[in-house]
Amino acid sequence: MTLTVPSGSPDPSPQLPCPGLGDPAVAQAVDRLRGEFAGRVRPQLVVRVVRESRRDLGGSPVGAMPELVERLARYRLDSHIS
Amino acid sequence: MGIGAGSVDVSGVRHTLSDGRVLLDDVSFRIGEGARAALVGENGAGKTTLLRIIAGDLVPEAGAIARTGGLGVMRQFIGSVRDDTTVQQMLVDLSPPAVRAAWDAVQATELALMETDDERSQMAYADALGQWGDVGGYEAEVTWDTVTVAALGVPYDRCKYRELSTLSGGEQKRLALEALLRGPDQVLLLDEPDNYLDVPGKRWLEERLLDTRKTVLFVSHDRELLARVADRVVTVEGGSAWVHGGGFVSYHEARAARHERLAELRRRWDEEHQRLIDLVRTMQQQAANSPDMANRYHAMQTRLAKFEAAGPPPERPPEQKVSMRLRGGRTGVRAVTAEQLELSGLMKPFDLEIFYGDRVGVLGANGAGKSHFLRLLAGQSVAHTGDWRLGARVVPGFFAQTHAHPDWQDRTPVDLLWHGEPGRPGVDRGRAMAALRRYGLAEAGDQPFRTMSGGQQARFQILLLELSGSTLLLLDEPTDNLDVLSAEALEEALGAFDGTVLAVTHDRWFARSFDRFVVFGADGRVYESDEPVFDETRVARAR
């Protein structure tokens, strides 16, 4: 799949809570990846990529979801900035 | 535990060996839901082949197998695994095919992900995990945890990478049995599930098999297990199979009655056959003189041809092939006397008197010195203190566990019989072959001892005892490798033996035929018991 990412400046308030992030797999991945990609990718983009990854992985076992989501989102974000 | 809902239908199965011999023909039977059926027969009769056909490993030449409920199989080699198979791999191998396939996919995609961590590999891995969840893989892992805790006393996560070769034979068997009995498969095929289990382990197995509502077909040589567990007995003999609908206790009677019935049917068929042949001959002569008789002659010829085409009923299977003649002879009243005897470091000193004609079961803990005691009485060099002596005309004959003859490995039975040894004169080839034939060993006469099966090796050793004229038999686990029918022949031979018998055994059924029991305790105490004692624990020694 091709990820389309709008260009823009970094989020001015990266520590704000993300609305609608009730899914622990998404929340954990967003937390970690926002830190990991801080200054390189806007936080909103991290949220979007994580959510899309979560959606694409629908049907995977719940227990494995956090790891799968984070791994896929990281791969997509890496591909975006490289 | 699931509700019993499995059955096996075997119909018209035929299997031919690679040399063209028909091993099984027209084998048909049904094991209904919740039945616990034992599969018995002489070694080589086709038990394992039949199990492999039912398991789907072999395709029968004719006939079909129908099953309901998933099939779980415990193969004979479990208990002797010496390669690098892990606990985890064995548990996967014992799982239903869908779980195995999903497991393989997870392993493959995980490997691919380690090599290429791209989106495609990640999605394939996620799909594999999804499939693992869908087939019940996570539930299986929960079950495996209860299995390892029950069998090994440790959680799955702590032992899954442990190699089976680091477990004892009994632990391997117990692990596999726990997995199958707690798993989802409703039909279990168990090939010698009791091998490598000590007596408490066998009792545990019996209880578990009696408790389960699954359908079980098992092969075992342990007659106590057969008697306690089996509610029907499938016998493979004479190239086919038949089912006794009762337990092992009434099995012998049923088998004898069946053999008589088959013999009677065959006798009647032979008589009718002869009568028809005689009639054809008579009519042939009459037809030569009277054209009117020609038609009747031809009709009779047709009748005979039809009768022969229908074929005779099955032959009565050959009677027990093993005919042991342990003669012995009268000895002094005191056959063995021991005073303050102690095998160095193995036990506390003990006194013992064994009289002519006694049948003594030597029981007790592993490592307590039972085998050494027999070796000492056989005249071998065993470090000891205290006194012991044999009575007048007592000639010991020693039956060792089958691996205990390194010098025999490359020699053939005929060669060993021909050369003889001190106390046993050699015999010529003709007499050697005749003796081997009585023990069902004629075909193995010219093959090296090491290539003979455990049962053949055991029978050969008993033949040597017969030829040596022993009056005191010292038997170390003599029934360990014998099939049920050979074990019965040995018991019968010992019953008729004129002399004294000492036998180390864990075979509960065999032990019942003894009238005295000497128990070597785990605490080093040697004592007599009126009843067989099988729950002495293994002797703990600093290593």
Structure description:
The complex is a heterodimer of chains A (82) and B (543). Chain A has helices at 24-36, 43-56, 65-81. Chain A has 82 residues and is an all-alpha fold. Chain A has one domain. Helix content of chain B is 41%, strand content 20%. Chain B has helices spanning 47-55, 87-93, 97-115, 119-134, 137-152, 156-159, 169-182, 199-211, 223-229, 251-289, 292-310, 370-377, 413-419, 429-438, 454-468, 484-496, 508-511, and strands at 7-16, 22-31, 36-40, 62-68, 71-74, 187-191, 215-219, 232-237, 240-244, 334-343, 350-355, 359-364, 384-390, 396-399, 472-476, 500-504, 516-520, 526-529. In chain B, the strands form four sheets. In chain B, strands 5-6-7-3-8-9 form a six-stranded mixed β-sheet, with helices on both faces. In chain B, a hairpin with a 5-residue loop joins strand 17 and strand 18. The chains are: A mainly alpha (82), B alpha/beta (543). At the A-B interface, helix 3 of A face helix 4 of B.
Brief summary of the model shown:
The complex is a heterodimer of chains A (about 80) and B (about 550). Chain A contains three helices and no strands. Chain A is mostly helical.
